[in-house]
Structure formats: C-alpha cells, structure tokens
Amino acid sequence: MTSTTEPGAGTARLSSRRMWAILGLVLLADAIDVIDGTITNIAAPTIARELNGGESLIKWVGPAYMLAMGVLLLIGGRLGDKFGQRKLFLIGMGGFTLASAVIGFSPDPGLLIAARVAQGAFGALLIPQGMAIMTKAFDREMLAKAFGLFGPVLGISSVGGPVLAGFIINADLFGLSWRPIFLANIFLGIIGMIIAVRILPRDDDADRSTVVDGWGSGLLSVAMFGLLYGLIEGSTNGWHAFSVIAVVVGLLFFGAFAYRQRTAEHPLIKPSLLKNRGFTSGMVVGLVAFAASTGLFFVLSLFIQEGLHASPRDASLGLVPLTVGLIGASFAAMGGLVTKLGRKLVFIGLGVSIVGCGWVLALVKFSGTDLSLWALAPAFIVIGVGTGLCFTTIPTVALGDAKPDEAGSASGSLGSIQQLASAIGSAAVTSVFFMAATSGFAHAMEVTLIVVLAATALSLPFVVLMPRKAPSEPSE
C-alpha cells in the first residue's frame, strides 16, 4: 500500500547517492518477492516428487505463498503507516529470510507449505514499505526514475528466477536438488537487512493513531482460504461435501468482506473507490487476466515437464520465449504506449493473449505430446507479448479516474488483487489441468487452454468500462 504523502515531504532531503542506494535495496526486496513467487512454476514437480507430496503439494506450493501475500498486503501497508516503514521493512525482511531457510531445510510437505505461508506473510509486511519510503524520501525527479526501473527489473526477475531454478535443480548443487533456490535467500536477506539498517530513514513520522481494520482482514483471509482450499481439495480428492462447503463458506465470507468495506469506519479499501466504475472494472479485468495468465504459466510448465518429459532445465529454457515477449511488451507499454493508447492497449493485450493461447491449442490438438519446444516457441512469444501488455497496462489505466487522496488505497488494492488473482489462478487452472489429466496430458492441456480462452474473452466487455486514459503525470 503506497503512501499518499507528497514526494520528499516526509523526511529531510537525502543525497543522490543515498536515494540510489535505497532504490537498489527496494528493488532487491521486490525482485526476491517476484522470484520466489515464480520459481515454483519450474520447481514444483521436483519438490513434490522428492517429498512425496503428490498433486496436492504441486497445487499448494505456489498459492500458499501468493494467498498469504495477497490477503495481508493491504494490512501490511497500514501497519507501516502505524509503526513506521523502516521497522516493518526490517521485520518483513528478517521473517522472509527465516521462512526461506525453513523451506530450504523442510523434510516434509506440511512444514514446507506452512513455511511458504509464513514467507508470503512476511513478504506482505516487506513489499509495501519500499514504495512508501521512496514516496516520502525521494524528490519528484528521482521518484520518476525509480518508477521507470521497476517494470524492467521485475520483468527480468520473473524471467531469471524460473530459468535459474531449472539450472540449479539440474546441477544438483551439493546433492541438495531444489533446496538451494530457497537457501540463497538467506544470503540475500542478511545482506539486505545490513544495508537497510544503515541507509533507511528513521521512522520519526509514524502515526500510532492509524487504525487497521482487523475484521476486514480476517473476513478476507477466511474467504480466500475457503475458496482455495475447496478448489484444490475438490479437484485432488473429489468433490465431496467438505470441499463444496469450503467454497460456499469462502463466497459467503467474501460477501461479508465486501459489506464490511462499505460500512467500516476505517476500511482497507476506500468506499469511494468501490463506487468508481473505472477502478472496479479495472479490478475485475485484472483479477481475470492475472488469474488466467498465472495459472496458464504454471500449467505450461507442468505440461512441458510431465507431458513432453522435459527436464527442469529444458522446461525453464522452453519458457524463455514467453518471458522475453513479456519483458519486451512491458518495456514498450511503459515506454509510452500506455500513455498514448490507454484502455485500447488493454484490448490489444487481451486480444494478443487470445491469439497466442489459440495457437498453442491448435498445436496441441494436432500433435498432442509429440511437440518440440521449438514448435511452441513462436506461440509462447505471442502469449508473452499479450501478457506483458496486460500486466503493465491494467493497473496503470485502472488508476486513471482515482483521486489523489485515493491513490494509496487504490495502488494497495490493485497489488492485493494481483497477488490474490495469482493464488486463485494457480489453484483453479491447475485443478482444471489435473482433473482433465485422467484422459492424458494432451487432453488436459486442451481443456485448460479452452478455459483460459473463455475467461479472457469474458473479461473483454469490462475493459470498455475502464478509464480511457492512464493517470496524467503530476505537475511539478
């Protein structure tokens, strides 16, 4: 959740060198978050096989992290306002590092999933603080430079994380298989904490009177856990009464959360935002697009490894065309396309994604599991381009009608939606894949692509309701 304070207003003016050091630290924290959210796309089958976790572990290892992150991201921003961003950054980084160590040494699936939840929870305390610190400490010129670097750095992280994970698993460093991809966070986390102690501004302006909506956070937590647990258990162990009840309870609690946001004195999401048609439409489009894309990326990795029998290294390399397309499109969008085209660019991104998914569907329908990674590469590039345009453009355009005093709540809400959508997408789309896999991996991939195509197409009408343009640059 970002701060709405004027840039540079919260602290004494910092030297240029110190601002760049703070930016580097914040980018490091965000890059670690992105990497740990994406490495399981490649590592999940290996982790499940070595810990005897089966399909349940494959389905939970990614969503467990994203669920905790998404549910607590809004409250993490509020806690930073209340107790100070510097303190919460250090607590988040320390907890994230410790949880990573537990994951790296986990002997069984239960402890690993619990540690992934803790990792996501501490990440939710860590990530919102960086943006708030920069908004308070940076001047406008430096803040503009910082925002310009976030897309490329996080895009490279989303590519490099899974690729590096594939090579590390294949290398089997010290006989540890997948474990070094999490144990590396111990080194990065300790370095990050040492740097943070030295360079982050003191929390002299923390507002202890800030109210955190605990009821709203609790309702959202129960809602998302019920939905994800029902989806995963239902598709893994059959749709028994307990799985159905979990989904129903999740929906009921989500309705209670929505009502709470309208009536609470200090809601997590400003009520005026929920009345903003452009913003709520952007949240709907973002929810569908992020869920469909995240779930599809995970399933493509599973199909390449389980259906095409590729090694983790080859699977990571096979997904490089997709992620290169994503980065290129993100650069193009933030380089000026989103400013010129606004919501039209969202239409273009969704349309390109549909073309890419249709291309892969045709290839799988024609060749089944006899496909080569080279044959899939062009279609993967197209999917990556469409996804890159959407991921960059949807959150930016959705803020087009937001008022200045709503910017912080709007940004935090969109960040939470992205994390929750990633958790829902990973669980739901993977569930579809495994349910259809009883008839073969080619059939499972076909059914999954049809579901993703349908969901993406259904989101198109909501794009018309989004703001026409992205927010204009603030005046000097």
Return residue spans where pLDDT drops below 50 for at least 5 consecutive residues. Answer: 1-7
Helix content: over 70%
Question: How large is the share of residues in beta strands?
Answer: under 5%
Shape designation:
globular
Structure description:
- It is a single chain.
- The chain is mainly alpha-helical and 476 residues long.
- 80% of the residues lie in helices and 0% in strands.
- It contains 18 helices and no strands.
- The longest helix is centred in the N-terminal third of the chain and has 32 residues, at 140-171.
- The chain is globular and about 60 Å long.
Summarize, please.
The chain has 476 residues and is mainly α. Helix content is 80%, strand content 0%. The chain contains 18 helices and no strands.
Topology, pairings included?
Blueprint: H1 16-38, H2 40-50, H3 54-61, H4 63-83, H5 85-105, H6 109-137, H7 140-171, H8 180-199, H9 214-237, H10 241-263, H11 271-274, H12 277-307, H13 312-318, H14 320-341, H15 343-367, H16 373-398, H17 407-436, H18 441-463
Helix pairs in contact: 1-6, 1-7, 1-8, 2-3, 2-7, 2-12, 4-5, 4-6, 4-9, 4-17, 5-6, 5-8, 7-13, 7-14, 9-10, 9-17, 12-16, 12-17, 12-18, 14-16, 15-16, 15-18, 17-18
Q: What key attributes describe this structure?
A:
476 residues, mainly alpha, 80% helix, 0% strand, globular
